[in-house]
Design goal:
Helices cover 75% and strands 3% of the residues. It is an all-alpha fold and 138 residues long. The chain has one domain: Up-down Bundle (de novo design (two linked rop proteins)), CATH 1.20.1440. A two-stranded antiparallel ribbon has the order 1-2. Strand 1 and strand 2 form a beta hairpin. Helix 1 packs antiparallel against helix 5. The longest helix is centred in the middle third of the chain and has 31 residues.
């Protein structure tokens, strides 16, 4: 399970890196027409920091913790996994809020943002399963 979490974090890292690149360097390639609208909205930054950069940081931390947990034994592994769970929980809640904004306020959807939301939710679900049964998915 930790390997799957690592692969999902790598996917999220790639999506966030692409969105960060687009934010700073050029137009976005999107399936549909909502990506530019979402990424140019007033909701795409927090305290001047693009959300894609925050996503990049979150996925990088999750990936780092997941890789570290593959290399160490208990009890440190349990603490690393708890860190993954916390990052995934906060990321899932924040993604749900952003998806609400896309639907109810901006009225446009970014395909890349949806991929990221599904990815962080999958990481959260897997980390929840591991948290409820520590023997699962080693």
């Amino acid at each position: 399970m930790r390997l799957v979490i690592s692969l999902l974090a790598l996917l999220g890292l790639g999506v966030s890196a692409y969105l960060a690149y687009e934010h700073f360097c050029g137009p976005i390639v999107c399936i549909g027409s909502g990506c530019a609208i979402v990424n140019e909205s007033v909701y795409c930054r927090i305290f001047g920091v693009p959300l894609s950069v925050l996503g990049l940081l979150n996925y990088a931390l999750i990936l780092g913790l997941a890789i570290a947990s593959l290399r160490v034994k208990n009890p440190l592994s349990s603490w690393l996994h708890l860190g993954i769970f916390g990052l995934a929980l906060s990321g899932t809640i924040f993604s749900a809020y952003l998806t609400y904004l896309e639907f109810a306020v901006i009225r446009a959807f970014c395909t890349w943002c949806v991929v990221s939301a599904v990815t962080i939710t999958a990481i959260f679900a897997l980390s929840s399963l591991k948290l409820t049964d520590p023997r699962r998915g080693d």
